[in-house]
Amino acid sequence: MRVLMISLDRGLLGKVGSGDVIARHQKYAELCGRLDVIVLSAKPGGPRWIGENLRIIPTGSSKLFHWRKAAAIATKLLIERPYDLLITQDFAAPAGEKIRRLFRVPWIVSIHGMFFSREWLKFNPLQWYLFWRIKQAIARADAFRVNNEVIQNRLQTWGIAKPILVQPTAIDIRPFFSDSKPDNKIPRLLYVGRLSAEKNVAMLIRAVKSLPIPFRLEIVGGGAQDKALRELAKNDSRIEFLGQKNFENLPDIYREADIFVLPSDTETFGQVLMQAAAAGCAILATRTAGAARQLEHGRTG
Fold first, then answer.
1. Fold match between domain 2-166 and domain 174-294
2. Considering the domain 174-294 in this protein, what is its CATH number?
3. How far apart are CA 109 and CA 178, in angstroms?
4. What ranges make up the beta strands (E) of the chain?
5. What is the CATH code for 2-166?
6. What pTM, to 2 d.p., does this model score?
7. pLDDT in tens, 113-156
């Protein structure tokens, strides 16, 4: 089976801190037989082979031309040799719509994020245009895969009656299993993820700074808010920024922690919660769709 995917995950281009994304797509390729992934990215470069059946192709385009460039690359590939299935992430749906119309290849839209949430839309005219354009495009898909029932219900309220599979992102938690935890002298807290507005790490920093007890908070990740968050925490020596880490370094970091905290405003799945649980951490999380699906208050989080 030959599958063509259009993705937004720049981790496929080898970015540090991209987690298990490459290993996960290698598994997808192994299961389907052949997987080509077009990645919406400004990073230039030609196709990159990972093994014998996974090919990564960056669009090398600006944000304004991602859809057009992805559709052009896909068109060339489909002319060379047909695919059995097209999969696009939600933001790539307008490109998928064009490919579906031209080549009649079965098309699945995979929705990982809450791109339609109030927190994302705000009062930004561009975001509202993207929302309208994506919503218009996905109505023409043949089926959907979503991370949780909240997204499933939203699609159904839009009048979409096509098959919707609720299937969280597949992850391998085996590297994180731990038989024992260290006897830390003071509580050791951990956050792992992007340092961006929707992750709400600023709230976490403000909250822990108000604690009168000794503790250690380690923040792993990078992003647009890195500098501002470091500034917010600079007068508290109990808070440490570890920067971005490769996936193979994360299990040991989780195992050293007592409590994992995920303060996100919006989270559709949160694979870090599964990793933290496997490593034996107690878990605190805001009540997002992803956390509510995995955690039971007072029992597992």
1. yes
2. 3.40.50.2000
3. 36
4. 2-7, 34-39, 48-50, 54-58, 85-89, 107-111, 143-146, 164-166, 188-192, 216-220, 239-243, 259-262, 282-285
5. 3.40.50.2000
6. 0.83
7. 766 766 667 777 888 888 899 999 999 999 999 988 888 998 99
